[in-house]
Amino acid sequence: MRPIKFKPILKQTLWGGEKLVSFKHLDTDATQIGESWEISAVPGSESVVAEGELRGKTLRTLIEEMRGQLVGEANFRRFGTTFPLLIKFIDARQDLSIQVHPSEEIARRQGKDHGKTEMWYIMESDAGAKLYCGLKQKITPQQYEHMVEDGTIMQAVADYEVKEGDCFFIPAGRIHSIGAGCFLAEIQQTSDVTYRIYDFKRKDKDGRYRELHTREAAACINFRVENNYRTEYVPAENQGVNLIHCPFFHTEVYDLSAPMTLDYSQLDSFVALVCLKGQATVTDDEGTRTPIASGETILIPATTRTLYVEGRVKFLATYV
């Protein structure tokens, strides 16, 4: 059971930028790449192994063959052959639409498999880049519909100028949007359900306004107002720093300048390492050495007990 690398799934978008090609060292002439899906089990966009003896196999096939050895016994009982997380890098040249995602309960009532809770970790973004997260003033569902209709909904949405290292948790029901100039890593439940609330009255390449989902979104929105939607944590070198612990995933950030052993002997789950900066060699307890560099993501099987990480590197470690 070796660490696994997958081929990135590149998504060209109207709002996509040019950062991902150089960040991931891609050999492509494609432009406006808004997203690189690093590990995905979304139907129609499923990850395929990039190298080694498993090359060409899909993520679902791996889980069917390896079951709990790959994802963890509890995860296999809970999710079956569906990998529970979708991991992405996102480069926004323009503002994305204002949107919201349903909870598990609401998604099932609406005929969807899963809701969507997610998180963002900000990487080196443009100066002055900002994003939108949560409500900054109390509004009722009726006021929400009127504000969407007359184009004033942005007056109620909190905005944040961001810098590298900022983290935001977006539970289902929280209004949000990635702003122009943001470059980030996203970890979310395996779900592609998004309800578009407001799109700045932009038109698509065919000159049409994109569809809004005002009513569907209204059923999902959490109208509670909080003082701060940014995740507060204290950065530290050469140790794991907790960012998010929620029912759907747990994520830590590591900023290493010295070798470190990560102990997963008590963890019944896969671990995904999402490399944000630098490079390192990862050695598992069976002696398998795997290089990782900025822009790469590797999947560590649940059977792995320890990882020795050697290099100057910054990465997210996420598991369920």
Automatic annotation (TrEMBL):
The keyword Metal-binding applies. Residues 244-319 form the Mannose-6-phosphate isomerase cupin domain. SUPFAM superfamilies: RmlC-like cupins. Keywords: Isomerase, Metal-binding, Zinc. Binds 1 zinc ion per subunit. It comes from the Bacteria. The active site is at R196. Its cofactor is Zn(2+). Pfam families: MPI_cupin_dom (PF21621), PMI_typeI_cat (PF20511). One of its GO terms (molecular function) is zinc ion binding. Residues 6-125 form the Phosphomannose isomerase type I catalytic domain. InterPro entries: Carb_Metab_Reg_Kinase/Isom, Man6P_isomerase_Firm_short, MPI_cupin_dom, PMI_typeI_cat, RmlC-like_jellyroll, RmlC_Cupin_sf. GO terms for biological process: carbohydrate metabolic process. Zn(2+) binds at H101, E118, H176. PANTHER family: FRUCTOKINASE, TRANSCRIPTIONAL REPRESSOR MPRA. This is Phosphohexomutase. The lineage of its organism: Bacteria, Pseudomonadati, Bacteroidota, Bacteroidia, Bacteroidales. The gene is pmi.
